[in-house]
């Protein structure tokens, strides 16, 4: 029996792959997404190492519970310095402009330069002889690091619905007439004339900013390896791209063979019972409970004072519902306002067992910022939602929610007493939102192949077959002029122009030839 077990252990180890997951600590949500990928692959029997580059200090949080973690700390404080005061700026402007987005790319390349100055700390990773490596689209320094370590088989992650940089590099069609750009774009897939103009503007601007950032990151690596390829080229040759979204929930759009949707990965099907504290909270409210959680980057306490007061006054009047608001540990003003307004139907918390509490039968509505992880979790639990988008893909995700009829959008600059009360009551009282949420959740759960199966099977396929050249789209290797047929359109325009000139010349010549000058009258 012992030899039989040893045999199967040896066979299993031979079939397992060695996998690197590059995971920058840009935010907690990104670590969660990358951690779920790592843990799923560990469960499938693979040897997984998560490399965490600490740009933001998140204590001991790694996102993974099962994979081996290698962390490089104190690389650069630039990200944290840039984020200081960002909540106030983002909440006072309707969206981030291209200047701010270009500055993020500048910061990302500076952090990459700081990382590569400590490149000797990466050298031991070569000894693992990884079969494949994952990195995400927000930080193309990861693409460069993976190639620098000699790992040829790269698997890309879009931590949101397919990012514009990913579609641009992989050659995924993105018709601007109905595919809204991802970042800072409050458009759905049904756009009027002016919205389509804005969408084209956003697409062109996004690509210009992306090229600026990736050229800077490429220059970082070329300082040490002169013939190092552009990181866009490396990304374009990725074997696969795993998309952290669900095609049932997402806005429909063209894709290519190497895009694999894995939204909902790691969300447990079994629900853990709530502890006594949250059980008691969920029992409150005549008609049920409403949760408000605006994420960790822009928490509830960061809202302007007039907006917070307006929301709290509306909550006080919605006395048939109990509200649970997630706040940051540094927030002291929210509790003070609640006491001043003498509101009884509110509880505050610094932490939520979000995945489990979303499954509670007395939860009627989730007011959230629209981050894709929380949104997919909410959709899987069939909970209607109100989205208060703050930045990045959250605007577009909100319009996605409206498209599916499972919630409404409340823009951050419109938050106040009347607007909050109106949108919350609409979603709570219109039964269609709940019915649509149930239908979407059912389809997301019942579609062929789970996110875990897709991730594991395709990753193993890439390990077994190496770089998947067969899935590469030729469009990813074309320059902008050829990709959009600008040279063809220019040629057609030139031909039409020349033919038009010839026709005009002939007509003018004929008119001159047959023009009869009237004879002069005799006096």
TrEMBL record:
Alphabetic keyword roster: Glycosyltransferase, Membrane, Signal, Transferase, Transmembrane, Transmembrane helix
Residues of the signal peptide: 1-16
InterPro entries referenced in this protein's UniProt entry, alphabetically: UDP-glycosyltransferase, UDP_glucos_trans, UDP_glycos_trans_CS
E.C. no: 2.4.1.17
Regions that span the bilayer: 488-510
Coarse class of the protein's main subcellular location: membrane
Enzyme superclass (EC): transferase
Reaction equations catalysed: glucuronate acceptor + UDP-alpha-D-glucuronate = acceptor beta-D-glucuronoside + UDP + H(+)
GO cellular component: membrane
Protein name: UDP-glucuronosyltransferase
Membrane topology: Single-pass membrane protein
Highest taxon above the source species: Eukaryota
GO molecular function per UniProt: glucuronosyltransferase activity
């Amino acid at each position: 029996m012992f030899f039989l077990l040893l045999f199967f252990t040896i066979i299993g180890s031979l079939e397992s792959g060695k996998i690197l997951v590059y995971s920058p600590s840009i935010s907690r949500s990104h670590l969660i997404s990358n951690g779920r990928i790592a843990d799923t692959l560990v469960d499938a029997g693979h040897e997984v190492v998560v490399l965490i580059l600490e740009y933001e200090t998140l204590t001991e949080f790694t996102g993974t519970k099962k994979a081996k973690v290698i962390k490089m700390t104190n690389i650069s404080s630039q990200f944290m310095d840039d984020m200081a005061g960002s909540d106030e700026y983002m909440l006072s402007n309707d969206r981030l402009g291209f200047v701010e987005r270009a500055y993020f790319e500048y910061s990302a390349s500076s952090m990459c330069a700081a990382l590569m100055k400590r490149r000797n700390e990466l050298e031991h990773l070569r000894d693992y002889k990884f079969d494949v490596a994952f990195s995400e689209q927000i930080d193309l320094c990861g693409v460069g690091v993976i190639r620098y370590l000699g790992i040829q088989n790269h698997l890309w992650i879009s931590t949101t619905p397919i990012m514009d940089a990913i579609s641009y590099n992989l050659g995924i069609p993105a018709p601007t007439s109905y595919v809204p750009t991802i970042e800072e774009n409050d458009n759905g897939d049904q756009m009027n004339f002016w919205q389509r103009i804005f969408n084209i503007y956003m697409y062109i601007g996004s690509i210009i900013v992306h090229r600026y950032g990736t050229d800077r990151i490429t220059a970082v690596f070329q300082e040490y390896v002169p013939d190092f390829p552009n990181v866009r080229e490396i990304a374009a040759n990725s074997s696969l791209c795993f998309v952290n979204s669900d095609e049932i929930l997402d806005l429909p759009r063209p894709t290519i063979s190497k895009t694999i949707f894995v939204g909902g990965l790691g969300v447990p099907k079994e629900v853990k019972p709530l502890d006594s504290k949250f059980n008691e909270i969920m029992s409150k409210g005549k008609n049920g409970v409403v949760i408000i959680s605006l994420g960790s980057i822009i928490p509830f306490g960061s809202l302007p004072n007039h907006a917070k007061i307006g929301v709290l006054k509306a909550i006080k009047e919605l006395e048939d519902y109990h509200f649970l608001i997630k706040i940051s540990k540094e927030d002291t003003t929210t509790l003070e306002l609640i006491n001043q307004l003498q509101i009884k139907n509110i509880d505050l918390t610094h932490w939520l067992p979000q995945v489990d509490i979303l499954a509670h039968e007395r939860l009627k509505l989730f007011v959230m910022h629209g981050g894709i992880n929380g949104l997919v979790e909410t959709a899987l639990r069939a909970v209607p939602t109100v989205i208060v988008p703050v930045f990045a893909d959250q605007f577009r995700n909100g319009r996605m929610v409206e498209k599916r009829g499972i919630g409404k959008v409340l823009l951050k600059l419109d938050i106040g007493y009347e607007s909050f009360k109106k949108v919350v009551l609409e979603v709570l009282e219109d039964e269609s939102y709940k019915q649509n949420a149930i239908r979407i959740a059912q389809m997301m759960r019942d579609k062929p192949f789970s996110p875990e199966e897709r991730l594991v099977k395709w990753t193993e396929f890439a390990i077994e077959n190496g770089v998947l050249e067969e899935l590469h789209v030729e469009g990813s290797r074309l320059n902008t002029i050829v990709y959009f047929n600008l040279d063809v359109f220019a040629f057609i325009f030139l031909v039409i122009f020349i033919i038009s000139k010839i026709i005009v010349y002939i007509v003018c010549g004929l008119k001159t030839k047959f023009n009869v000058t009237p004879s002069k009258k005799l006096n």
